[in-house]
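Continuing from the previous page of notes. For each protein in this section, the sequence appears first, followed by its structure tokens. Read the first protein now.
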Amino acid sequence: MEPSSGLTPELPPGRPPEASPDAVAARPGAGGTPPVASRGRRRSFAGAAAGLAGAVGLAAGLLAAGLLVTGDSGRGAADRAELTAATASGSTGAAAGARVTVTGTATVDGTPDTLTVQVGATTNSPSATGALDQNNREVAAIEAVLASAGVAKADMQTSSLSLQPNLDSNGKVTGYQASDNLTVTVRDLARSGAVIDAAAHAAGNDAQIEGISFSISNTSALLAGARAAAVRDAEARAEVLASAAGAKLGPVVSIVDQEQQGSNVVTPGTSFAVHGAGPSPVPVQGGSEQLSVQVQVVYSLVS
């Protein structure tokens, strides 16, 4: 007798039951339509894989451009900036906007034509007024002989004036001392010795001469030559630096004149008294004077 359609047929021992058509349709990969949860998991995995590939591609691009620093975690922002600049401009040549700053110097010699000297008188007297009155007369005599020697009033200037007591070892006042000095400019160097001699004789034994200095009245031509030489010196220095960096000099960006005019030949603190009349004027030698110039020049650099 055939089994009825409502009964499940018996299976041989060890044989698994066959899946129903509905179960086969629900199984992934079995030719049926996967369930909704399975399709979502597949889309999530594909999206993660695409994101990871994009991140790997971005890192490779940054490494190729020199913008991603790896390895040493201690390298700072300055190191990264150097790496970027080196990648952008190459190991040699000039980066955009690169500049070099140098200082050029030059020194020239000139012959002084002007003398400056301090002349005056120091007088002593038992009274303060006596010391001052005597000093006034002697300094007036000095001014008169200077004017006679051709020194203009504008070239005579009082530089020091003092009146003080003289004290012994016990601090007792023994008298008074007056001192008056003039700073005198002599513009005719050939006659400067005679001028000094005349001033000393006008005050006699009370005459004082201090600190002689020499100068050049017009340094314009000398300084112009020195500046030109200093600029050439700066350019030569900049050429060496640019060549060492694998670049070339571009146009000048700025020039700053740092003039350092040579100081006069001075004998500070020298003081001596003149006694009696000499057979000849005071010998004076002007020698030479150096003028120095510095210029700071900024050049642009080009590759």
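Done with the first. The second protein uses the same format. Note its length before scrolling.
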Amino acid sequence: MDLIQETIAAIRPLDEAAMAQARAHQNRLTKPQGTLGALEELSVRLAGLAGACPPPLPEPVAVAVFAGDHGVHAQGVTPWPQEVTAQMVANFLAGGAVVNAFAAQLGATVNVVDVGVAADLPSAGREPRLLGRKIAYGTADMTQGPAMTVEQAVAAIEVGIEVAGRLVAAGHRCLITGDMGIANTTASAALVAAWTGRDPAQVTGHGTGIDDATYRHKINVVRVALARHAAVIARSAGGGIERAVDVVAAVGGLEHAALAGFILGGAAVRTPVILDGVSAGAAALIAYALAPNALDACVAGHRSAEPGHGATLAHLGLRPLVDLDLRLGEGTGALLALPLVQSAVRVLHDVATFDAAGVTEKDAGRAATQSSAEPGPGPGSEPESGPESGASPRHSLEPGSGTAAGSASGSEAEYL
């Protein structure tokens, strides 16, 4: 567990000075303050992550699709056969999946990590985009016992840390989470319920499109697994690395553990990690339990149609950038959010300030007219204050709100 502890120790809080500089710079740009909404606060947070304003542009970009199978598949939680996991890995490597199409559109690379596929992959060792780090041929059935051993959970987390480090060392400046594993939304629901305390019915979804009878059965399977491991989950409330890993071993997937390590690894080298859907969200819960400051590196790419993802985002306080009822996984939703993340940073790099562009700022003309027409304050008079005095900005972006304080709700700011 040394690598996990060393990685956690390397994760630092956001740089407040860089964030203040980014906020001040945003307020000098040729636009009314706050008009870019949540993107302004995102740019500030990424400056804090990098410790510099402007932060590096989040490019080149790498997607890491962690693949693993699940023993709970034996409980009949999905109509899809388990061999589809290995078949989809081959599809990723051939460039035929949706994640490949989206990545090609955006200039991102797709890398696949076999952390627990229940088959030997023919291309292992021959395909440079496939990293063979198989820890087991899938997990065990979490309704019958722990999904994996603690040692396997630790090894999977370390794989994720290693992959993040390799990709950043290769020059990538933005990481995107991807996942593949038939029945992985069942394990995701169990993890989300364990960490958030929500009832299984609130966090379990239809996954790949199961019918209502299978959906009810799936909820019950999650409930049975949580009951079996209730003592382990209860102990995790006390905090600590070992207790968090125990929960992962009890009801998680090998790809969930690896994704958690991927988040930790990105945070340790101050590189943004765009999260995909419910499996990535479950991994973010693990990472947060291990190192709360790791959440500073996370950008919620989208909100999945899976109910567990909405519960996760609410629990972590993350605001998704895209909400299109997606539930595919693979990293697809996170990729769609990539241009928004890049644009947020590009603004700090490329948009001119009022001074540089020679653009008159709001109320500058009015202030000049008033100063020439009105006498100065008399002896002992109080200086005027308020929104028209320039003492404070009219549109100040409230952290985490994504809305400009003081502006009309739902309206666009105007150059007035």
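What the second structure shows: The longest strand covers residues 61-68. The beta strands are 61-68, 109-116, 130-132, 174-180, 273-275, 298-300, 396-397, 404-405. We return to this in next week's lecture.
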